[in-house]
Design a protein that fits this description.
Elements: E1 20-26, E2 30-38, H1 45-62, H2 68-84, E3 97-105, E4 110-116, E5 120-125, E6 128-132, H3 138-144, E7 176-177, E8 182-183, E9 189-193, H4 195-198
Antiparallel strand pairs: 1-2, 2-3, 3-4, 4-7, 4-8, 5-6, 5-9
Helix pairs in contact: 1-2
Length: 199
């Protein structure tokens, strides 16, 4: 049976206030962690990210599951909560947030994740990178198409342009995830982070 240590760090970086939110829920069998980053420039990003984290964790606690398809459905329900939280004529009118969510089953090691936007999950084993999520961003599309090198993304003028995030209509919301459960091992490290870390 796996055991888990959790560490959380959140700082506003160069902003006046922090638009990131994160949290986790745990039982004897399962662990669910979620990180969200309010999309800058839209207004209400801090509200969107907090709403996303609180909504997803509350729904997961009601019906824990490590199924990747159910986790994706949970994120889609969370997206609806963000859309319903908007208020016309206020800074909340166009609020958006990225999201990344990880679920680990302590008993059998099954691990699933899902994300939208450019908040990432990194998985390390024995100090080597096993996997990292791929951003739903304009520059990641350019890298995938072979038009720019990965090391050119940081200075690209459109590096902050997202293809998807919570706050999009459901038919426009792109989600990516583990597809099938992976098996975590003792000593594995998972890092969920916003672009403020990986940049």
């Amino acid at each position: 049976m796996l055991s888990l240590q959790v560490a959380i760090l959140s700082e506003p970086g160069g902003r006046k206030h922090n638009e990131d939110a994160c949290g986790y829920w745990s039982s004897e069998r399962q662990f669910c962690c979620v990180l969200a980053d309010g999309a800058g420039g839209h207004g209400g990003g801090d509200v969107a990210s907090r709403l996303a984290v609180e909504n997803l964790l509350a729904r997961f606690a009601e019906r824990p599951s490590s199924s990747g398809s159910e986790l994706s459905q949970l994120v889609r329900q969370t997206n609806q909560a963000v859309l319903h939280g908007r208020a016309s004529g206020t800074v909340l009118e166009q609020m958006h947030s990225t999201i990344v969510c990880l679920v680990v089953d302590f008993v059998d090691g099954r691990t699933d994740w899902v994300h939208s936007g450019d908040s990432r999950l990194y998985w390390f084993r024995e100090q080597c990178l096993v996997e990292r999520t791929r951003d739903h961003s304009f520059v990641e599309s350019l890298v995938d198409a072979g038009l720019i090198r990965p090391d050119e993304t940081r200075d690209h003028p459109k590096r902050s342009v997202l293809r998807s995030a919570l706050g999009n209509e459901d038919e426009e919301l792109e989600l990516s995830g583990s597809n099938t459960s992976r098996i975590a091992a003792g000593g594995d490290v998972f890092l969920l982070c916003s672009d403020g870390v990986w940049e």
